[in-house]
Design goal:
The complex is a heterodimer. By secondary structure, chain A is of the alpha+beta class. Chain A contains 8 helices and 19 strands. In chain A, a hairpin with a 2-residue loop joins strand 9 and strand 10. The longest helix of chain A is centred in the middle third of the chain and has 18 residues. Chain B is mainly alpha-helical. Chain B has one domain: MetI-like (MetI-like fold, Orthogonal Bundle), CATH 1.10.3720. Chain B contains 13 helices and 2 strands, in the order αββαααααααααααα. In chain B, strand 1 and strand 2 form a beta hairpin. The two termini of chain B are 23 Å apart. Classes of the chains: A alpha+beta, B mainly alpha. At the A-B interface, strand 6 and helix 2 of A face helix 8 and helix 9 of B. The complex binds adenosine-5'-diphosphate and magnesium ion (MG). The site of magnesium ion (MG) has 3 residues of chain A, from helix 1. Chain B: Keywords: Cell inner membrane, Cell membrane, Membrane, Transmembrane, Transmembrane helix, Transport. Chain B: This is sn-glycerol-3-phosphate transport system permease protein UgpA. Chain B: Pfam families: BPD_transp_1 (PF00528). Chain B: Belongs to the binding-protein-dependent transport system permease family.
Chain lengths: 338, 293
């Protein structure tokens, strides 16, 4: 049972400001995903919550108490690292039991807790192995096991799946989600992968150069991006951006955003913009049609895989509902469309 | 894949190997062979003829209380030197590892003593602790301690141990620092989150992960203490007082070149060689198996 609150949290390394003030109120049991491109300060933010980085200004609260000055070991958190950070000289059992041993937990209880975590993570057969004798996925599970045996208040994950291959990543993503649901532990999860963010998060923080551009439920962020950056980062393929001058009726000086899935192809001279097909990618269930507009801007349309894909060089128009059209000001902020 | 260079013909590889082979032969195999040969003879007092005595030199040595004392002295001396130089180096490396800025400066400064020749290091320490003009002994005198390593056996041992360890600290420090920096930061952080404070982390994570480095340094330092400390001992104590600092390698010199008993001296060299060989084999057999994880 734990709540976490970040108030105007800032971090500078020397003169470089890395986090420019993040605010969020996380309720008990919530799964928060911090997502953003590499170098935007996600890890730094997480590490401040962990106590591995000092806080430059602002405050981290766990269960209502400020923890800025507290050492990591006093915060009752657990963290899963990208490289797993297992203790290479210890067996799997000892890796998981390490924290409990330090906390002077009775031996019988340690054995029982490690066993039940191992069972949950299907690691029972591997308890007597060293980390180097395990596959990537198994190491990942050991790292998870080490986190859950301690029954912490908060789980922190720093890109825990990035070192796994694509298939395993999808599987582990689901397992993490189910595990977190069943344990009900408040979690902060860092990733640069927007699919992971969309599938795991109760709420997500989209970070852009040290600023939390938007905080909200995944579908809300997708449907209603507050900045040009969020519109471009969340959703795949990425949102098309066009200068307002190209789209009739758009407020002057703004950037127009249209998601590929909201656009459809039509015959020339009937679209809102015109262009030529440069190439198509047929992915089976869907086809991505990449166009070069007459203004030389690129534009992607996503259509159902069953529809016939236009040939290269084919001239066509592009249409969309005006309600799907987004406008962003020069500062990148969303401008409400009347 | 291992990269292999293949040569056509024999001439070039032989030419490339020759310098090393010649150096090893002239400075190692030839003298070692001579030592073994000489250890079987006793030269007459004028050094004109020698008499074959078989293993007589060895028999005499093993029964000689002075020689046995030199064994004990060597054991004490090398354990002290190894422990002191490894301990100090590890301590400094841990401190330097915690620094983010300026560790380069420390590294550079700390490596300097390694560049000082043992004999020079010996003279340096001798000056500091000289019973009449030494800075340190003068301050000790003010504090009421009467330092005299010329007469006091324990003080003499302490001084040669300090002087011998001093130069080694640099060398060991570099290896320890590299070893520490090879430990992933996240492993240490994971341990911190798991509740381990500095000392617990050191004991349960850092030190075990450092064990291959420690093992390597252990071997190298013991060999150093056995052989290369000759210069330090020669300049500071000349093996005294009352042979209190006469380690095996010094006795080889003292008996052979000062005492002119070349047969015994040669026999001692042979024993020394065997002892160090054995020690190294034992270390590899027993410890190496335990340091890999
Ligand atoms: N210890 C540090 N010292 C100086 N700069 C750092 C340090 N750690 C991170 N940074 C900088 O802070 C920024 C954010 O880093 P990080 O939080 O690791 O990004 P992310 O996890 O989103 O990829 C980067 O520009 C990085 O170079
Ligand atoms: Mg990161």
């Amino acid at each position: 049972m734990a709540t976490v609150k970040l108030s105007n949290l800032k971090k500078s390394f020397g003169k470089t400001d890395v986090i420019h003030g993040v605010d969020i109120d996380i309720s008990d049991g919530e799964f928060i995903v911090i997502v953003g491109p590499s170098g935007c300060g996600k890890s730094t933010l997480l590490r401040m919550v962990a106590g591995l980085e000092t806080v430059t200004s602002g405050e981290v609260q766990i269960n209502g108490a400020g923890v800025n000055e507290m050492e990591p070991m006093d915060r009752n958190i657990a963290m899963v690292f990208q490289n797993y950070a297992l203790y290479p000289h210890m067996k799997v059992f000892d890796n998981m039991a390490y924290g409990l041993k330090i906390a002077k937990t009775p031996k019988a209880e340690i054995a029982e807790r490690v066993q039940s975590a191992a069972k949950l993570l299907q690691l029972e057969e591997y308890l007597m192995r060293k980390p180097r004798e395990l596959s990537g996925g198994q190491r990942q599970r050991v790292a998870m096991g080490r986190a859950i045996v301690r029954k912490p208040d908060v789980f922190l994950f720093d890109e825990p799946l990035s070192n796994l291959d694509a298939k395993l990543r999808v599987q582990m993503r689901l397992e993490i989600k189910q595990l977190q649901r069943s344990l009900g532990v408040t979690s902060l999860y860092v990733t640069h992968d927007q699919v992971e963010a969309m599938t795991l998060a109760d709420r997500m923080i989209v970070m852009n150069g040290g600023i939390a551009d938007q905080i909200g439920a995944p579908l809300e962020v997708y449907a209603n991006p507050q900045t040009e950056f969020v519109a471009g980062f969340i959703g795949s393929p990425a949102t098309n951006f066009l200068p307002a001058a190209l789209v009739s009726g758009a407020p002057a000086g703004t950037t127009v955003g249209v998601r590929p899935e909201h656009a459809t192809l039509t015959t020339p001279d009937h679209g809102l913009v015109e262009g030529q097909v440069s190439y198509s990618e047929a992915l089976g269930s869907e086809t991505l049609v990449h166009l070069r507009l007459s203004s030389d801007a690129a534009f992607t349309v996503r259509q159902n895989g069953m529809e016939p894909a236009p040939e290269e060089g084919h001239a066509c128009g592009v249409l969309w509902n005006s309600s799907d059209q987004m406008h962003f000001g020069a500062d990148g902020r969303r401008i409400a469309t009347p | 894949m291992e990269k292999r260079v293949t040569f056509k013909g024999w001439l070039l590889p032989i030419c490339l190997l020759l310098p090393q082979v010649i150096v090893t032969a002239v400075f190692f195999f030839y003298p070692a062979g001579q030592a073994v040969w000489q250890s079987l003879f006793i030269p007459d007092p004028f050094g004109l003829k020698s008499q074959f005595v078989g293993l007589g030199n060895f028999e005499f040595l093993l029964g000689d209380p002075y020689y046995r004392a030199a064994f004990t002295t060597t054991a004490v001396f090398s354990i002290l030197v190894t422990v002191a130089s490894l301990g100090m180096a590890l301590f400094l490396a841990v401190l330097a590892d915690r620094l983010i800025k300026g560790s380069g400066v420390y590294r550079t400064l700390l490596i300097w003593p390694y560049a000082v020749a043992p004999a020079v290091a010996g003279v340096l320490w001798l000056f500091m602790f000289n019973t009449r003009v030494g800075v340190v002994s003068w301050y000790l005198g003010i504090l009421g301690y009467d330092w005299n390593h010329v007469l006091n056996e324990a003080e003499a041992m302490g001084l040669v141990v300090a002087a011998s360890s001093w130069g080694r600290v640099s060398y060991n420090f570099l290896f320890f620092l590299a070893g520490l920096q090879a430990i992933p930061k996240s492993v240490i952080e994971a341990a911190a989150i798991d509740g381990a404070r500095f000392w617990t982390r050191f004991r349960t994570i850092v030190f075990p992960l450092l064990s291959p480095t420690t093992f390597f340094l252990l071997v190298v330092n013991i060999v150093y203490a056995f052989f290369e400390t000759f210069g330090v001992i020669h300049t500071i104590t000349s093996g005294g007082p009352q042979q209190a600092t006469t380690i095996l390698v010094y006795k080889v010199f003292a008996d052979g070149f000062v005492g002119q008993d070349l047969g015994s001296s040669a026999a001692q060299s042979v024993i020394l060689l065997v002892v160090v060989g054995l020690l190294t084999v034992i270390q590899f057999k027993f410890i190496e198996r335990r340091v890999h994880y």
